[in-house]
Amino acid sequence: MEENQEIKKNKSKEFLKNNLPIILILCLGFAIRVYYFILTKNQAEWYDSGEYLSMASHWAFNLPYEFNSQRPPLFPLMEALFLKLGFGDNLLKFIVEVVPSTLLILISYLIVKEMYNKKLALLTSFFISIFWLILFNTVRLHADIPLLFFSYLAVYYFWKGYVKKERKYHLYLAFIFLALAFLIKLTAGLFGIIFLIFLILTDKLKFLKDKHLWISFVLFCLILLPYFIWQNNTFGSPTAFLFASHVTYDPGGITSYKPIGWYVLNWIPWMLHTPYFILFLIGLITLYTLFLSLDLILKNKSNEKYNDLLIFLWILLTLTYFIFLERDAEDRWLLPIALPLLILVSKGLYFVYDLIKKYQKQVAVSVFIILILIGGYFQLARASETINDKKDSYKEVRESSLWIKENSNPDDIIFSKSLTQVTYYAQRQVFGFGGNETEFKNDVKKYKPKYIVFSIFEPHGITLTYPEKFKDSLEPVKAYYAGDDNTKYVLVIYKFKNYDL
Known about the structure:
501 residues, alpha/beta, D-Maltodextrin-Binding Protein, domain 2, 2 domains, two-stranded antiparallel ribbon, 20 helices, globular
């Protein structure tokens, strides 16, 4: 008995010794996330998060809400479950954002360790732990962190299952997690394309004979089948989520195309910030060995650079989609390439270290540490700046919505441009309203709303003239002002006295 306890004790010591660095990085990452979580516990939700929460409230509490076909159901379904259990916004955020965001550090470590080596994995996981854009989205109820969580798990098990061929069930897990990622956010489909191109380049069409790949694909389809059925029942088509985002329509047809989105490339230096962006550019240089061996890879004579090939395709195909097809992007839309970008940052830093080490090891170590600290400072400084700047945004929308909830009946209808947030916070049916005056009058007579909200938070255009134009029908009942001088309003609630506009 004592001998068994001693063996277990020794194993624990050995495990701790071998894994202490990544455990410390995980603790650091978790502590940073908890700090920002506490800092933002009273912040209001934005339009996107309001939309997911309104969907969740529809399922949890039967709140009337018209769904957007491009919002997959898994994330709001998760929220609906916790809302039904009585969880508030903060506890909900901790479970669906902070926890998976922390686990991303570990998953990133495992991916890079499998693809490269332990020292590169530790450095990259540290960068993930302090990456400002991940931290910012961790404290908001956006779908991006759960997307990364499932997508990166898919990459990890794809590498272990197909490239390293360790266990056949690893490949099954890869496609299960890929399907779950797609049910979180549609852009997860890019990972399927990345896997496919990688397979074609490295294995030609031989992969079509792999029965485990086919089983994985069947599992993928079976998981998505209920989603397609739901899309068909809800929106009239199993592929209602598809759309031509690079064109603009009018009643006569296509009127214009979005220009090719070259500006999307500008998000990379913005995301990485100056110190890490410079290291990223150096890391790109290290890919020269990939291109030197590309002919061997294409002829299936070498798999030595499969790791570089995958991260290169990961970045290239993602950027290609947003530049040429979507022709638009926000920084958080590019979060899926955070890991390959930071892998190249790590490779760039080790390139500098190895270069200096040839001449003076102590100087190399000092430069290595200084660059990490400088880059880390820039990352955390931007995280703090951005999170602090935005934590009080839209608070007037939340406060006004809660006021509406207290001063209306459950069956009352509200008009607002901040449709998703007002729906969630007020727990009332909300409709947007357009700039066409005739349509507005018809909608007022049709829906007979109790209140209409005008604010600076969404584009209102000509509708801002409506309170003056229809002053005999609209009575201001609540106003919210910028600052303490009560001279410039940011949001006003009007009550309909009558519907004869």
